[in-house]
Amino acid sequence: MKTIIVIPTYDEIENIENIINTILNVKSDLNILIVDDNSPDGTSDVVLRMQTVNSNIHLLKRSGKMGLGTAYCEGFIYALENGFEAIFEMDADFSHDPKEIPRFLKELETNDLVIGSRYITGVNVVNWPLRRLLLSYFANVYTQVITGMPIKDATGGFKCFRAEVLRKINLKGIKTNGYGFQIEMNFRVWKQNGRIKEIPIVFVDRLNGISKMNKDIIYEAIFLVWKLKLGLYKK
Ligand SMILES: Nc1nc2c(ncn2[C@@H]2O[C@H](COP(=O)(O)OP(=O)(O)O)[C@@H](O)[C@H]2O)c(=O)[nH]1
Ligand SMILES: [Mg+2]
């Protein structure tokens, strides 16, 4: 399958070159799309430089920080327009191990969405403060109870979609970010009876750069699950 890894970036200068090279070392025919929100640290300049020697590296540069959800949706639209069949979500900060990419692709042969899950075999999170781990864990229990969606890790950001399933989603209508975005995408695939498979991954907190997580992302997710449950979202 023609595969692209979509990576949203905001101030990832310390990770960008390394993550791109690590992914290409896993499989040199993978394509990578960086969706950069005009990072002040010049992340996109590094991508531009790397593009000159490798045409598998793509860049979408947006005018400013507009959030993770819309960055992914623009990336997905680009991927669909360019004929990619397997479309990944992945972070730039090495929390997601590129070596796992082939395992996702194997599972995608018989599924529509493969989710890297931190919570199917106990708790596979390394180096997160307990506060953040508890927040994530209970956010997932809450999401599962309210929505009824049988997914143990609905907020994770390492996953792979089949193009067909993304084509059925109104990507321009999605306004959520962060946790909420991940939940909403899973929910929409689930509602169209997409085949969803969780595979265990280990999530390691970033070593370089800083997290862009904030309180608004948590409030958004709390209200979103009710909206989804009650059907109050744009189809
Ligand atoms: N384009 C874009 N990327 C973002 C934005 N916010 C976060 N990111 C990227 O999304 C990924 C996950 O963000 P991160 O800060 O690591 O979140 P955390 O892992 O939940 O702490 C990283 O690659 C970030 O650079 C944004 O507003 N726009
Ligand atoms: Mg991170």
Short description:
This protein has 235 residues and is of the alpha/beta class.
Describe the structure.
There is one protein chain. With 235 residues, the chain is an alpha/beta fold. It contains eight helices and nine strands. Helix 5 (130-147) runs parallel beside helix 8 and helix 7 runs parallel beside helix 8. The relative contact order is 0.17. The protein binds guanosine-5'-diphosphate (GDP) and magnesium ion.
Provide the number of structural domains: 1
CATH superfamily: Spore Coat Polysaccharide Biosynthesis Protein SpsA, Chain A
Strand content: 15-25%
Question: What is the number of strand segments?
Answer: 9
Output the keywords.
235 residues; alpha/beta; Spore Coat Polysaccharide Biosynthesis Protein SpsA, Chain A; 7-stranded mixed β-sheet; two-stranded parallel sheet; 8 helices; 9 strands; 40% helix; globular; binds guanosine-5'-diphosphate; binds magnesium ion
Task: Describe the secondary structure blueprint for this structure.
Blueprint: E1 3-9, H1 16-26, E2 31-36, H2 43-51, E3 57-61, H3 68-81, E4 86-89, H4 101-108, E5 113-117, E6 125-126, H5 130-147, E7 159-162, H6 163-167, H7 178-191, E8 196-200, E9 203-204, H8 215-229
Parallel strand pairs: 1-2, 1-4, 2-3, 5-8, 6-9
Antiparallel strand pairs: 4-7, 5-7
Bound molecules: guanosine-5'-diphosphate (GDP) and magnesium ion.
Guanosine-5'-diphosphate (GDP) binds next to strand 1, strand 2 and helix 3.
